[in-house]
Design a protein that fits this description.
InterPro entries: LysM, LysM_dom_sf. By secondary structure, the protein is α+β, with helices and mostly antiparallel strands. 29% of the residues lie in helices and 9% in strands. The chain has eleven helices and eight strands.
Length: 340
């Protein structure tokens, strides 16, 4: 089985390896990435929201046309429901959406109630929660994590999540403003309720064009390497959790690409980990150097075929959130069936 080889070209001349050509919600599934549940598959900074005004009354008893909201890049259903002040379940019901439905930029959603709220600034602003002693704010930068922000401000992760109404699987975006709880913050007995839908089998049309192209690349590379369907499904789920199946040019620390592989830990150069074919091959086969294996891939893990779905993904990714992969199992198999 061929492995990625980072030796100089002269050293590689003696070896043969052929790699085909075509890497954290959120998909945007209304669930998280790297959190499998609320991730928004569109990490790009949000533009100014556009909300249509209700149709004016022409006669005293004429019904008001429903207000609408045009989805922007980076929006999630949960964010929209919070912004306009309605329940997430009501927003879904008004638009006939399921928990796994993906929304897309330009899509027009009906807002139940018939009254359009005023447009807000593009970045969601977390307001100070006096019940948790929040007295300061922090603007999220690219590469930030909730844990790192909490640690830098000397507060617990739970306190930071509670102050902002976030769950442990929440996704944050550059430009987002978080409330920082003060030293007097006291955690409530139960955290703020954040709906966390469980991913279910969804048709391939729930992915946008970029995600479909990347998913097909993962499937094709897996087929070429002789990886069984279970391994390809694990790769698809991993890419969704890590990057929303998008070839990201940013991530935690130096993580890049669909699988958020880190050049500093031996996954390859920045260009290599952002190459969809090379990064997928590395996920399956690992990366080898002059002295042998540098990073192990899924096929290097003994008994991966009989492991729990999420545990198998975690054996490669070594994530701080190992519980996020498993919920995508059924959905990953649905994508494989539709695209493979």
């Amino acid at each position: 089985m061929s492995r990625l080889d980072h030796r100089p070209s002269a050293a590689r001349a003696a070896t043969t390896g052929v790699i085909g050509t075509i890497g954290t919600l959120a998909l945007t599934l209304s669930v998280s990435p790297a959190s499998a549940a609320t991730a928004d598959p569109r990490p790009a900074a949000r533009d100014q929201t556009r909300i249509g005004a209700p149709t004016p009354l022409t006669i005293a008893r004429q019904a008001v046309a429903p207000a609408t909201y045009t989805v922007e890049s980076g929006d999630t259903l949960w964010d929209i429901s919070r912004r306009v002040g309605i329940e997430l379940s009501a927003l879904r019901a008004a638009n006939g959406l399921e928990a796994t439905t993906v929304i897309h930029p330009g899509q027009v959603l009906v807002l139940p109630g018939g009254i359009a709220p005023a447009a807000e600034s593009s970045a969601p602003v977390a307001r100070a929660d006096t019940s948790t002693g929040a007295t300061a704010t922090y603007g999220v930068n690219a590469g930030d994590t909730l844990w790192a922000i909490a640690d830098a401000h000397g507060v617990s992760l739970d306190a930071l999540l509670q102050a902002n109404g976030l769950g442990r699987d929440a996704i944050i975006y550059p430009g987002q403003v978080l409330a920082i709880p003060g030293p007097a913050a006291v955690l409530r007995a139960t955290p703020a309720a954040v709906e966390t839908p469980v991913p279910m089998a969804a048709p391939a049309t729930d992915l946008d064009a970029e995600q479909i192209e990347n998913a097909r690349t993962i499937i094709r590379v897996g087929r070429e390497l002789g990886v069984p369907d279970r391994g390809i499904a694990i790769a698809l789920a991993t890419a969704m959790v890590e990057s929303w199946i998008r070839n990201l040019d940013w991530g935690d620390r130096d993580s890049l690409g669909m699988f958020q592989q880190r050049p500093s830990t031996g996954w390859g150069s920045p260009d290599q980990v952002r190459d969809p074919v090379l990064s997928t091959t590395a996920f399956f086969e690992g990366v080898s150097g002059p002295d042998g294996l540098i990073t192990r891939g899924l096929l290097d893990v003994p008994g991966w075929e009989s492991m729990d779905f999420g545990a198998a993904a975690q054996s490669v990714q070594v994530s701080a959130y190992p519980e996020r992969y498993g919920p995508w199992e059924q959905t990953a198999y649905a994508w494989l069936a539709a695209l493979g």
